Amino acid sequence: MTDPRAFRTVTADQLALVWPRAALVDVRSREEHATARVPGSLNIPLDELASRLADLPNTTLYLMCGSGKRSTQAARLLTDRGHTAVNVAGGITEWYRAGHPVTYNQAPADQPPPAGNPAAPGLRRLLPRLFRRTSA
Q1: 83 with 61: CB under 8 angstroms?
Q2: pTM of the full predicted structure?
Q3: Cα–Cα nearest to 78, from 99, 55, 101
Q4: Annotation says 42 is catalytic
Q5: Which of 49, 67, 85, 108 is a plausible cystine mate for 75, CB 3.0–4.6 Å?
Q6: How many other CB atoms are found less than 10 A from the CB of residue 57?
Q7: Whole-number Å distance between alpha carbons of 6 and 3
């Protein structure tokens, strides 16, 4: 018997088959989303998700973060609340590696990364690769 609260996980390439028609929710921080994002994604940081359920479209929700950890947590939270959620394995990192479009903005040179953000080191490693890429 299938658990009605279960969610499925897809690869970046599987998401690309339904994107941009799919409702893609990016659960990374506002700063991460502002720096690099999948075009058309809705940013609701994981720590705000439970209080912003009314902001979600009434459809299947594809969830993305930097690598898949936060989006897995978001998928659990949403399915427990009756939503149909799909986790995107590998997050925006795998989306980018698979050659799918990413929109990015360069942070001002005099602005340090947010303090205490555990994703900042990984994002700093990803940004140079993103800036070399031309927008699709």
Answers
A1: yes
A2: 0.75
A3: 55
A4: no
A5: 85
A6: 10
A7: 5
What is the chain's pLDDT, residue by residue, as a tens digit (136 residues)? 456 568 999 999 999 999 999 999 999 999 999 999 999 999 999 999 999 999 999 999 999 999 999 999 999 999 999 999 999 999 999 999 999 999 988 655 555 555 554 545 555 565 555 555 544 4
Structure tokens at 100: 């799918």
The catalytically annotated residue of 65, 78, 88, 102 is 65
